[in-house]
Amino acid sequence: MSDEKAIYWLTQIIGWFLFALLILFQNILLGSADLRIIGFLMVNFVVGIGLSHLMRHFIISWGMLRQRPFKILPGVLLLSAATAILSSVIIALISDLFFDRLNPILVPPFDLLLELFLPFTTVFVIWNILYFASIYLKNYEREEVKNLRLTSAMNEVELANLRSQLNPHFLFNALNSIRALVDENPKQAKTAITQMSNILRSSLSSGKRSFVTLAEEMRVVYDYLHLEKIRYEDRLECVFQIPEEVLTLQIPPMLIQTLVENAVKHGISKLPEGGVLSIAAMEREPGLIRIEVCNTGLYNPIGARQEAGFGIGLANSRRRLNLLYGAEAAIEIYNGERTVVCAVTFPTKPLTQTNDENTPD
Amino acid sequence: MKTLLIDDERLARRELRSLLEAHPEIEIIGECADAGEAIDAISQLRPELIFLDIQMPGKSGFDLLEVLDWVPKVIFVTAFDEYALKAFEVNALDYLLKPVDPSRLAESITKIKSQESVGEKHASPAEVSNHRISLEDQIFLKDGERCWFVSLRDIRYFESEGNYVRVYFEGNKPLILKSLNNLEERLDERSFFRISRKHIVNLKEIDHIEPWFNGGLQVKLRTGQLLEVSRRQAARFKDLLSL
Fold it and tell me: How many angstroms separate the Cα of B8 from the Cα of each of A180, B37, B221?
């Protein structure tokens, strides 16, 4: 705020100084300049600053800044004219009193008044144009910043929501399987409960973190697939191709998990005989991660679109990647050899780090 | 009560079986892992009750019901398909959520048993034995987002519409993918009569019959609607009614 005040006064001083200079040059050109002009210019300078500041006071206290430009236009013109009259009277009187003692009547000469009134009106109108323009510009910028802040806050919230989505279908089916296992194989049931806890925990905490290592993510995926294997038994076979060197790479949490859930939900669960689900991760070129999740089946984009709930997980993942990595990230889904391939590519370094406790080094 | 369990997951079937041990009146006559198996099992074993999972590979539980000529009593068992069940009218069906709560299961079975004791008064063994669909049997109908279990007694008439048949009951008229000929073979002729190439009518719904052009007849339903009896069928129709 004090910055703005300083700029205001500096502009006032420079502006009115330039105005005084203009009058000086005009007088020099006309050949009518003598030493008295210095006094006249000083009076001009002080009256200009003083009255324009007074005018600003009225503009602010009448709430003109909050109204639409068209609505206040006549008011501003009138105010400029009134200020110009006042300035002309003051200047005419002062110059009459102190510099031109030839005519000591306390009524300003009419022609001097006229001579002063028009230029002063012009000057005050220009002053107002500049003043209002600067205010509008400042408001616009402030609004812009506010919008930007709002958008980034919304993105943050959205990211957090997208990360923490848990598939209720999986949850309740898994619990149902575990309930049956309690009789059939109590030891396996205990393991399953631990794995379910791990998944719930990571799902709850994933909303707070922007990145996890691929190794951490895979731990969740293993637990998840283990639980699905209890449910689907020999209908689900899993293959992993994850070289050691990619395990430390940072990835968005629940990304692979979402793709794997999709592959089970839309792929394996649709096949009466079941199928194979494979996960491969690689750093194809330096700085670019590629993760492929494949499942037995055939991808049919038209049929898939008609299916309730299809594409939400994929669209969410796409949106997340877009927010984190921009245009460099991509998710594609296509048919391989009797498999559906879902491939995600994204840079190892995100666009900007989101503020959280888990920023990668 | 002869009962069939239909769920693609072995453990889910096992769990249901163990829960049903507490209900000796439920006699489990088989288990099916998909809709295809279930269609055969239902026509051969003719269960009175099925426990049906909605999400199964291949055909869903709804797809299964749609292809059946005749639908036993159904209790849906599902993990999280409440949105799918919203398609039904309130109280039109019973469903259990996985993992199944034993007391909820007991409630459902009590409800089914009370319905059965009402139905038994009408059911005659002859109707069951000739595998025709009787008036007390129900069929499953689906029209876009809405689903119904409809007892045949409530159906006024069937109308042929291309490869489909339109079923008129209460204020609704959904389509089913069946031919009128096929339907005629499956329906009990003492309750439903084919009056023309276009219509099969529920005899209980007929208010009166009046002569029509060229020796034909016209029936007026209790709702006031008029349907034409073709000349060919008119003679048979008269015979049937004089019995």
Answer: 14, 10, 45
